Amino acid sequence: MSDYIFSLSDKVTRRAVSYRNRFGIKLAADLYLPADFETNDSWPALIVGAPYGGVKEQGPGIYANELAQRGFVALTFDPSYNGDSAGSPRRVSSPELFVEDFHASVDFLGTQPGIDRQRIGVIGICGSGGFGLSAAQVDPRIKAVATVSMYDISRMHAEGFAGSMDEEARKSTLQMLSEQRWEEFSSQRPKLAPRGAPLQINSDIHPVGREFAEFYSCPRGYHPNSTTQFTLTSSMSFMNFPLLDKLQWISPRPILLVVGEHAHSRFYSEDAHAAAPGPKELYVVPQSNHVDLYDRTDKIPFAKLQDFFQVALG
Question: Can you give the residue range of the structural domain that contains 40?
Answer without folding.
Answer: 12-175+240-313
